[in-house]
Write a structure and sequence with these properties.
elongated; mainly alpha
Amino acid sequence: MTYADAFITYLQNLPDSLVYILLGLSAFVENVFPPIPGDTITAFGAFLVGIGRLTFPGVYISTTLGSFVGFMSLFHIGRVLGRRFFVEKDYRFFRARDIRKAEAWFQRYGYLLIALNRFLPGIRSAISWQGAYPNSGDPAS
């Protein structure tokens, strides 16, 4: 038996409600710790729908809710700590120049940029890529 087979067998023995909670929790964690592959987790949820283990509405609601709560948690942390906390400290993973670049993007594109970034996975990657490489056509460079 392969690891994948053992994992699927293990999932088959869990209650549906726990699997939905785990999918939502993984979507939450993916927002808080970006190196976790959130789209892979969502694809796995789709796989569970495909094999008849879970329902589409249940997977959609649990992953969307987890993602929303994760995003809003980060929003709240940013609001509590404030802009000054991140810009003055110039952290390794939160560079002041990147924060100013994001602010310039938001000034130019507003809520459309946020909507595209949150809801269109291909666009999300392009926006992240643009932010990672200076002088790549963004308004702040």
